[in-house]
Amino acid sequence: MAKRNKLVESMLIGAAIGAVVSLFDKDTRETVIKNGKVVSRKSAKILKNPEVVTGKIRDNIRMVRSTITEITEDVQFLATKVNELNEKTPEMIGMIKETKDAFAKTITLEGEKNSKIEG
Fold first, then answer.
1. pLDDT band at 93; cut points 50, 70, 90
2. What percent of the chain has pLDDT over 90?
3. 94 located within any domain
4. Burial 21-32 (b: 16+ CB within 10 A, else e)
5. Contact 50, 41 (CB under 8 A)
6. What is the predicted pLDDT for the residue at 119?
7. How far apart (Å, rounded) are the C-alpha atoms in residues 115 and 113?
8. Pick the residue with more confidence: 6 or 5?
């Protein structure tokens, strides 16, 4: 003979009693009835026209796939630009140093010219 799980059985009984007691309240009872009718109508529509629901689901799946594809392409584009920037940064630093050195040399030469002219 199989053992019964008294805990689960007691929880189900308690939940059923709680549901019945809560229905003593008029507002709760009316809300349950109203929501039950809405769920019933929607369920009937789905059962009569399941292709509408499956079509909406397919459309949503297509939209999600499209969004994921766009995001993937954007991330790839950004990764490419970051890689390009990482490759060009050392070149740019070298060019900036060369320009700085050229300006410093020009300033030094100008200074020497001026001191010879004055002296």
1. confident
2. 47
3. yes
4. eeeeeeeeeeee
5. no
6. 57
7. 6
8. 6
Task: Please give the tally of structural domains in the chain.
Answer: 1
Q: What is the pLDDT of residue 12?
A: 92
Distance CA 103, CA 110 (A): 10
Residue with tokens 């008294």: 6
Cα 93 to Cα 100: distance, rounded to the nearest angstrom:
10
Is 9 inside a domain boundary? no
More confident residue, 66 or 100: 66
Q: Phi and psi for 46 in degrees, rounded to 5? A: -65, -40
Residues 6+ positions from 22 with CB-CB distance below 8 Å: 28
Domain range for residue 34? 24-118
Structure tokens at 35: 């929501």
**For the chain, how far is it from start to end, CA to CA, in angstroms?**
120
pTM (predicted TM-score): 0.45
On whether residue 13 sits in a domain, the answer given is no
Cβ proximity of 29 and 23 under 8 Å? yes
Asked whether residue 4 is assigned to any structural domain, the reply reads: no
Q: What span, in angstroms and rounded, lies between the C-alpha atoms of 34 and 40?
A: 10
